[in-house]
Predict the 3D structure of the following.
Amino acid sequence: MKVLVVGNGGREHAICWKIAQSPHVDKVFCIPGNAGIAYSAECIDMPVNDFDKLADFVTERGIELTLVGPEAPLCDGIVDHFMEKGLKIFGPAKQAAQLEGSKSFAKNFMKKYNIPTADSEIFTEMPPALDYVESKFNSDAKGLVVKADGLAAGKGVIVASSKDEALKAVKDCFGGSFGSAGKKVLIEECLYGEEASILALTDGKSIIPLVSSQDHKRLMEGDMGPNTGGMG
C-alpha cells in the first residue's frame, strides 16, 4: 500500500522511518517533509493547509492511508475534509482536536467529566489576569503556570517560580508574543513531581494503550531554562 505522512518535524521523521519498514507498505510520501525524512520517504513540496490539494494528491497517487503529525492541520479539520471525500486518514476530527488546540477547552472538558486537573482560571483580558497573579503570590503560591490558550509550537507554556516571572508571562501572552494563541490565557497552579505522558489509540469504540513516555522539555540541564518545542 501507499502511505502519506503530513508534516516536517522529528515526529513525522520517526513515523516515516518506521512505516517504511512495514512489509505492507510499498511507498511512503511525506508532505512537505525535510532532508532527513527524504531518506525514508519521497518528500513533496506542498502546503499542509491546502486540504483540497492534499486530497487531490492522495487520489491521483492512489494513496490508501494518510497520517497527520502536526496539530495545526488537525485543528483546522483535515480529518473531516478527507472523511467527507471518502479518503482514509488517521487522526482526530476537528472537534476532538480542540483538546490539543485549546487549553481552555481541554481544561473545561476535564472539569466537566471530573478528570483530576490543576486549579486554574481563564482570562481574555490582561488586567484581571495580572490581578489574579498578584493575589495568588500574595497568598503564598510557590509558582504558577501561564499558558497561551492556542497552538504555539510547544512554546506557549511558562512555568513561573516568582511573581515577576508570572506577570511577565501574562504580558507576553496578551502582548502578542505567541500571536493569536495568546488572545486567551490560562493560569493554573504549579504541580510538582514527575511528568509522564500516557497515550492511547482509539476509534471511538476500542482503546489500545501505549507505553508511557516522558518529555524533558527544558532547554538546559537540571530542568533549567524555558520550555522547548520538543526534547530539551
In short: Residues 102-189 form a domain with the Dna Ligase; domain 1 fold (CATH 3.30.1490.20). The longest helix spans residues 126-138. The mean pLDDT is 92. The two ends are 36 Å apart (CA to CA).
